[in-house]
Specification:
Blueprint: E1 2-6, H1 19-27, E2 46-47, H2 55-73, H3 78-83, E3 87-95, E4 101-108, H4 114-125, E5 132-133, E6 135-137, E7 140-142, E8 144-154
Antiparallel strand pairs: 1-8, 2-5, 3-4, 3-8, 6-7
């Protein structure tokens, strides 16, 4: 049997940074460059189907839809399955101020498993199929960066 387990982190996860470094980063807004992205914002991006007055419920809905989508989208590569390779790939991406997904990059990979890394990136890129409402900061639409762990587990 094959089972996938996916964990979704949506709170501006930055690996390898101290609390002080994160606070300093949060206090400094990104530059005016078009590719700059916030790590935390007043209003996080939402999937359009998840809008609600209760922002906690809307964020939880978005996280749930992303987890379900990734679970459905990811296909465990045969070579990794046959070799018994498991682990978690961390993928970073940006929800741009126009609601599109961009800059999908690997943050942490599974050693000797480039096929799992590639599959995680491919699956995350399909999040662009959702109709996203961009995050906002001080009333303006802004780009927001996310880190998503995609766990590959054989059972």
């Amino acid at each position: 049997k094959l089972a996938f387990t996916f964990a979704v982190l949506f709170a501006a996860v930055c690996f390898g940074q101290t609390k002080e470094e994160l606070k300093a980063k949060e206090a400094t807004p990104p530059s005016d460059r078009m590719d700059a992205a916030f790590t935390t914002v007043e209003e996080m991006p939402l999937i359009a189907d998840c809008t609600a007055e209760d922002k906690t419920a809307a964020n939880a809905c978005t996280q749930q839809k992303i987890a379900e989508h990734i679970a459905k989208e990811v296909k465990y590569p045969v070579t990794a399955k046959e070799a018994g390779i498991q682990g978690t790939v961390y993928v970073n991406f940006i929800v741009k101020s126009d609601g599109s997904i961009a800059d999908v990059n690997l943050i942490r990979v599974i050693k000797d498993a480039p096929e799992l890394d590639a599959e995680a990136v491919r699956a995350v890129k399909t999040l662009d199929n959702f109709n996203w409402i961009p995050g906002t900061q001080k009333g303006k639409s802004v780009s927001v960066t996310y880190t998503l762990p995609v766990r590959f587990q054989l059972k």
